[in-house]
Amino acid sequence: MQAVGAEKLLELRVDSKTYRSAKNAPIEVLRDFAFELAPGSFACLVGPSGCGKTTILRIAAGLDRDFQGERCISPSTRVGMVFQEPRLLPWRTVEDNIRVAMDAASATGSIGEWLERFDLVEQRRQYAGELSLGQARRVAIVRAMSVGPDLLLLDEPLVSLDETVAARLRGELRAIAETRKLGILLVTHDLAEAIELSDRLLFLGGKPACVMLERELSIPRSRRDRRTVAALVEEIAGETNAR
Amino acid sequence: MARLLSLALVIVLWTVAAAAVDSSLLPGPVAVGEAMLRDARSLALPYHLACTLLRVIAAFAIAFSLGMAAGFAMGKWGLVDRIGDPWLVILLNLPALVTIILAYVWIGLNETAAVVAVALNKFPNVVVLTREGTRALSPEMEDVAQVFCLSGPARIRHIVLPQLAPYLAAAFRSGISIIWKIVLVVELIGRPNGVGFVLGSAFSLFDMVTIFAYSIAFIVIMLAVESLIVQPLERNASRWRRKAA
User: Fold this and answer.
1) Which CATH number characterizes residue A51's domain?
2) Do A91 and B147 touch (CB under 8 A)?
């Protein structure tokens, strides 16, 4: 391993990623995508739906190894992931869903504290299949956090939640990003959400997709109020449209 | 309650029919009950029941453990499936009687042959059901297991078995009924004890009372197995599913 690899949490280079269509014709979805994430940084992949964001996240998680390129990650890196559909085990209770992940990571910590923080105390002994989508998404976030991840991968974790719940969860994600030294990669189609949370934006677009625009956000998260976010959304949306 | 009433009705009809026919070919419930009590006291009934039940359990355990392993492998890996499939089709279509005769001829008239013959009859059915269940395993759940680095045993316990449970329950259900029927045939042909042996000798004597007594005793035991073991297990495995309104 080179010295560079040691300070980066994740280095990803996708020269090309191709799917086979139902008729067996190859479709290239990604080309020349490169990305790296340092501990303590919060990056965000933004782009229209179907542009390959989830594919990148799956490659980053090591779930998809069928691509041309390279993925560098230390084997000791602990990964927590929130899928777009929460993917809890419906045959296990909320508590057991979290415990299964924690046991696998030999993580210690109090499930009760997490449940309290995400307002899930009453659901503790419910089966995951009985939860509402909002509750299930919160459990999925707790499950990913409870393993004590070095790298947190979030795939549209707040999509189709009502605004109050989403705003609260954004607050929690901000708190997690501020207080823990972990690298976060968030996939979203919501530019405002991306601006509110992350410190680096990568816009995907084109066919096959590649990074159209990369943007660092240097304003501290605490100062990103609604007006600042709205102004940035307008500014950045203008830039991406101009291309 | 409805179950008990329906059962009582059967006994009433039986009594009436036996009285109407008044023949040794259709003994009434009282005669059969007396025979059961007599053989229970002489310990002949419990002995033969135990012999049969042990064979059922042994054959069941073998058919299930091997069948689940083979079915899982065939559902998981295409090559194993292509190699194993012709054998599976042969076993599925082999008449029980052929397996029994071959086992007795090749292995000998002994306990091993009896249990092997029964297990071989049930085995392909377990394989088919487990294979279907394995093919239906959700790749999404597999992703979860991989991302969170679940160990092999944890995967089986938390990811695989809960998804296979309905298929295994179906195999269990049909297994119990198939196996005990075949065990009786095996005993009839080549064993000196067990319910099948007793039925065979009673048949040659036209001893209908004994035939009824042993059949009913065994049916009662299988009903007990069903309601005391199979159903609670099934309820436990599906307790997380939402109850249908």
Assistant:
1) 3.40.50
2) no
